[in-house]
Amino acid sequence: MQVKRGIAASPGVGIGPALVFGAGSFHVPRQYTTHDAIDTEVARFRVALENVCQELVENERLVTERIGSQCGAIFDAHLQIARDPKLIGEIEEGIRKHAYSPEFSTSSVLRGFARKLKELGNPVLAERAADIYDLEKSLLRHLLGEEREELSQLSSKVVVLASDLSPSETAGLSREFVYGFATEGGGPTSHTAILAGALEIPAVVGIGSFLKDLSGGEMVIIDGDHGEVILNPTEDCLAEYRRNAERSQSAARILLTSATKPSVTQDGVPVPVYGNIEFPGEVAHCLQREADGIGLYRTEFLYLGRKSERTEEDHYKAYKQVLDAYPESPVVIRTLDLGADKVPVSLREYYAREANPELGLRSIRVSLADQDRFKTQLRAILRAADLGDVRVMFPLISSLSELRQAKSLLKDVGEDLAEKGIPYRANLPVGMMVEVPAAALMAEEFAQEVDFFSIGTNDLIQYTLAADRSNPAVAKYYNSADPAVLRIIRLVLQASKPRSIPVTVCGQMCSDPKFVPLLVGLGVRQLSVTPQVIPQIKAIVRSLTIETAEQIAKRAFEFDLARDVESYLKSELKRLCPEME
Ligand code: PEP
Ligand code: MG
After folding, report:
1. Whose CA is nearest to atom 3 of ligand 1?
2. Is 286 tagged catalytic?
3. What are phi and psi of 7, to 5 degrees?
4. How far is the centre of ligand 2, averaged over its atoms, from the C-alpha of 579 (Å)?
5. Closest ligand 1 atom to 457 CA
6. How far is ligand 2, taken at its centre, from the CA of residue 434, in Å?
7. Is 191 among the residues known to form the active site?
8. DSSP of 58-86, one letter per residue?
9. Closest Cα to residue 511, out of 546, 492, 477, 538?
10. What is the pLDDT of residues 14-49, one digit of tens each?
11. Rounded distance, CA 315 to CA 544, Å?
C-alpha cells in the first residue's frame, strides 16, 4: 500500500479500480514531407484543425447544458487559441517553409508556445500552458488518427489517474462511471479543479510523478477531503474507508431529509445557512440542500477562460438566473474579485510581471483601477436588484477611502439608471468583505458606513498569518484554529455590535463543522458555506443553544496553541453531534 499526498481539489471519497492515463502525449519525431505534397499536407492540417474546432464547439455546448455557460466558456478560450492566426500561421509556415510534417510542425509550435508561458514563472500562466498541450493532443489525435479511449464513454466504474486532465476531459467525466480522479499536475485554482467541484466528483490534484509504475486495474482510494490517494490499499484500510464512506453516505442521506428543517438553535435563535457559488448553475445544488439563500456569489468566475470582456447583459443574465432560483431570499452578489489567483485572460500579461500578486493589484483595487468594467457590473447588479433581495458586497476592502469610492460609483451608476428611466433598486443593502487585517482593525469605523460585514476567512487567515492560502509548502502555517485568527474574528464581531451590523462568515472556515459552535458562540448569526455541507452545518446549528456555543467560544480562547484549540473544538463537536465523527 502506498499513500500519495496532493492537494484536495474536490471533497468526498472515491474507491475503485484504476484507469490510468499516462502522459498521453504523442511523441512526434522530426519528420519531413516531400515538396510536391506540401499543399496536400497543409490541407490535411486544416481538416484536422477544423475537426478540433468543431469538437470544441460541441464540448462548449455540452458543458454549457450540463454545468452552465461559465464552464462552457473554457472551451471558448481553447477555441480562440485554435483560431489564433499567428499560431496557425506558424504551424503552416513550418509545413510550407521547412517541409515539416503537419504533426511535427503542430507539436513544435504549440510546445514552444506552452514552454514560453511556463518560463514566465507565474503559476497561473503555467497552468494555462495546459490548455495549449490540450490543443496539441487534440490536433495530433486527429492528424495521427490515434484513438484515445474517450473518458466520456466509459462503460464501467473506475477511478481515473492521469498525468493531467484537460478541462475538456474533466467536463466529459460522468459521475455515474467515475468515482473520483487524481492527477500528477494541476493546482487548486486550475479549471480542472473548479470543474471537479462543480461536478461534485472527489478529486486530488498536484501529486507529482506517481503514475509510471502503475498499469491500471489496481485498487485505489481517492480521498478528496484530505488530499490523499491510496494505491493498493490493504484489506483493512479498504474496509475502513468503505465503512467510513457508507457511514458518511447514510449520514448525508439522513441529513438531506432534515435539511428542510429551519436552521434555528435549540433556544430558538435563527442562524440561516446560505450557499457559496461560483457559477449560476450551482443554485440547483443550493436548492437541493435547502440553502436559505446565496451568501456569496463569486462573480469573477464569469471571466473564467474568457478572452473578451463581459457585457452588462452577460452579468445581468447570470444574476437573473440566480434570482430566478431565489426570488425572495437574500442573494449576496460580490463584485469582481479578480487578480492574484483569479486572472482573466486580458490581464495575464500584467500579472505575469507582478512579483507578489496576493499583495498586488487584486480585487476591489482592480475594479477601482478600471472603472468602466466596474460600472458595467454595478449597473447589472442594480438592475438585478429590482428582481429580488439582492445585496451588493465589495471584496478586499482595506481602507475607508476605497469603500467610499466604491459606494460613490454605485451611487453614480444608480443616478444614471434613474435618469434613463431604467428599472433598478436604489436602496439595496451594501456590505463589505472583512478579509484584510486592516479592515478588521478598523471595523468600528467601517460599521458606520456599511449595512453588513462578511468575514472572508480564506484571505483573512493568509494575511493575518502571512501564509499563502494556495501554497502547499506553507500549509502548516495556515491554520483556521490559530488563536490569532480567533482574536481577529472576535474583534470584527465586537465592532459590529454598537450599530448591530449583521456579520456573516463566508470563508471555508465555517464549512468546517468543528468551527460552527465557536463562530455562533462569538455572535455570528449567518453562515455561508459550500453547497455540499449545507445540511451538515444546519444540523450543527440545531444541536446548539446559544449558551453552549458561548461557553465553547470562551473556553477556546483559553488555549494559546492552534493544535489545542483544534482538538478542543473537535471534542466538542463529537459531544454535540456524535454521528458526524
Ligand atoms: C475569503 O477570502 O474567505 C473568501 C470567501 O473569498 P475568496 O475565497 O473568493 O477569496
Ligand atoms: Mg477572499
Report:
1. 456
2. no
3. -110, 125
4. 32
5. 3
6. 9
7. yes
8. HHHHHHHHHT-HHHHHHHHHHHHHHT-HH
9. 538
10. 999 888 775 454 555 567 788 888 999 999 999 999
11. 39
Atom of ligand 1 at shortest distance to CA of 455? 3
What are 159's three cell numbers? 477511478
Backbone φ and ψ of 331, nearest 5°: -130, 110
State the distance from the centre of ligand 2 to the C-alpha of 507, rounded, in angstroms.
7
Q: How many whole angstroms separate alpha carbon 331 and alpha carbon 392?
A: 8
Count of beta carbons in the 10 Å neighbourhood of residue 49: 22
- Decide: 298 in ligand 1 pocket, CB within 6 A: yes
pLDDT of residue 76: 83
pTM of the model: 0.74
Task: Give buried/exposed letters for 384-416 (b at 16+ CB in 10 A, else e).
Answer: bbebbbbbbbbbbbbeeebbebbbebbeebbee
Nearest CA, atom 4, ligand 1? 456
Strands laid side by side in the 2-5 sheet: 2-5, 228-231, 219-223, 13-21, 158-162, 178-183, 203-205, 7-10
Enter the C-alpha cell of residue 83.
483560431
Would you say the CB of residue 456 lies under 6 angstroms from ligand 1?
yes
Q: What is the pLDDT of residues 220-259, one digit of tens each?
A: 999 998 899 999 999 999 999 988 888 877 777 777 787 7
Q: Which three cell numbers stand for residue 234?
A: 490493504
Pairing of strands 452-455, 430-434: parallel
pLDDT band at 417 (very low <50, low <70, confident <90, very high): very high
Q: How many CA atoms within 13 Å lie on the side-chain side of 418?
A: 9
